[in-house]
């Protein structure tokens, strides 16, 4: 474990990142963008240890891999780690990362929807094709997820793959992540180019809420450790939940704030604003 002082960590997490030329256009056109050298190796090593300890202490999925569903085989999933650790809160609330989200969405500020650690175990299976916003009772597509590998992520570890431009069409938007979504969307998405490539250490991706994406299995013999944060336009409104998952999200991440009102519960602070 790399121990770094708080001043160093906070300095890096707050320092603005200058988007490369064409990044916003790429995000708008293709629904995602990958950015190199966003976070240092030293910072990632530090948070690898901190987040991993929390994931394995809070994880409740303990049954053998062969007894799990496809979704359960995809990853260990632990949400809102920022509420469990002040140190992780500094990471999740990073102004550096939130500013990138605001710039890509072309909004004046972003709120946190929630964070989640996604750890694909060494024998973990595929993450089926899906679009995240199926789960969110939000009025606007102005949402984005940052996907932060805590290690260099080669192909055998199951890096994220993106169906380019799929956020522009309204297909598969009623599908939960499942064997069914994988089978149906594998056919439906043949009209789209799929981008799948390793992630260097320090490289992160941002993808739109309605962009279809998946990940392959992890055959590396090592866990694929990823931290994510979901950002939304600070002006985002809550809509009537359209499925049981959105209803659960409305209660859990939005604290049942009024439908039609702002998505501004105490769990949804503004992380960056101009």
From TrEMBL:
- Protein name, per record: Ectoine hydroxylase-related dioxygenase (Phytanoyl-CoA dioxygenase family)
Which Pfam families would you find in this protein's record?
A: PhyH
Keyword annotations: Dioxygenase, Oxidoreductase
Q: Which InterPro entries has this protein been placed in?
A: Phytyl_CoA_dOase-like (IPR008775)
Gene3D superfamilies referenced in this protein's UniProt entry, alphabetically: q2cbj1_9rhob like domain
Name what cofactor the protein needs: Fe(2+)
Which GO-annotated molecular functions does the record name?
dioxygenase activity
- Keyword Transmembrane helix in record: no
């Amino acid at each position: 474990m790399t121990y770094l002082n708080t001043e160093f960590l906070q300095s890096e997490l707050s320092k603005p990142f200058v988007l490369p030329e064409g990044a916003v256009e790429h995000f708008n056109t293709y629904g995602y963008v990958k950015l190199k050298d966003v976070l240092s190796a030293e910072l990632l090593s530090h948070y690898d240890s901190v987040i991993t300890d929390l994931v394995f202490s809070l994880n409740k999925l303990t049954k053998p891999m062969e007894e799990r569903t496809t979704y359960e085989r995809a990853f260990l999933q632990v949400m809102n780690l920022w509420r469990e650790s002040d140190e992780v809160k500094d990471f999740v609330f990073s102004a550096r990362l939130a500013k990138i989200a605001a710039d890509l969405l072309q909004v004046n500020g972003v709120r946190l929807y929630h964070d989640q650690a996604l750890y694909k175990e060494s024998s973990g299976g595929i993450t089926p094709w899906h679009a995240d916003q199926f789960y969110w009772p939000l009025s606007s597509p102005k949402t984005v997820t940052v996907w932060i590998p805590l290690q260099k992520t080669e192909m055998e570890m199951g890096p994220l793959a993106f169906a380019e431009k799929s956020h522009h069409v309204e297909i598969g938007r009623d599908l939960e992540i499942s064997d069914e979504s994988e089978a149906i969307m594998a056919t439906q998405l043949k009209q789209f180019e799929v981008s799948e490539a390793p992630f260097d250490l320090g490289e992160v991706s941002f993808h739109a809420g309605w962009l279809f994406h998946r990940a392959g299995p992890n055959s590396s013999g090592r866990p694929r450790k990823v931290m994510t944060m979901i950002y939304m336009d600070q002006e985002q409104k809550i809509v009537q939940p359209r499925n049981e998952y959105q209803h659960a999200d409305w209660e859990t991440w939005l604290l049942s704030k009024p439908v039609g009102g702002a998505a501004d519960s105490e769990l949804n602070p503004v992380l960056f604003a101009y």
